[in-house]
Write a structure and sequence with these properties.
By secondary structure, the chain is mostly beta strands. It contains one helix and six strands, in the order ββαββββ. Strands 1-2-6-5-4-3 form a six-stranded antiparallel β-sheet, with helices on one face. Strand 1 and strand 2 form a beta hairpin. The longest helix is centred in the middle third of the chain and has 14 residues. The protein is globular, with a radius of gyration of 12 Å.
Length: 96
């Protein structure tokens, strides 16, 4: 689901997506800061989804640390990061 479909008004709302089954527990939707904290699907599933879909959507993965459960990426004038632990995961987007 795109950020737009999830109700976000800021960020790369048509280009960035999350799994269709995403459950967002906390969100921030500001011009300078977009956040999605997710409780499902699993952090491993979201990480795998992002690895697969970010490049296809026109984003560049700039760092990928599976051992640290984190990655950074950039595209469409935005930089982003993904991080997770065993219970939840989060995406943060900021304008470049």
């Amino acid at each position: 689901m795109t950020l737009a479909a999830l109700g976000y008004l800021n960020g790369p709302i048509s280009q960035f997506s999350l799994p269709r089954t995403v459950r967002i527990t906390t969100n921030v939707d500001q011009p300078n800061n977009v956040v999605a904290v997710m409780s499902s699907p699993s952090p491993v599933a979201i990480e795998s989804y992002l690895r697969r879909t970010l490049p296809a959507a026109g984003f560049t993965i700039t760092a990928d640390r599976p051992d640290a459960k984190s990655m950074t990426f950039a595209g469409y004038g935005w930089t982003g990061s993904f991080t997770s632990d065993h219970q939840a995961s989060a995406v943060l987007l900021r304008p470049q």
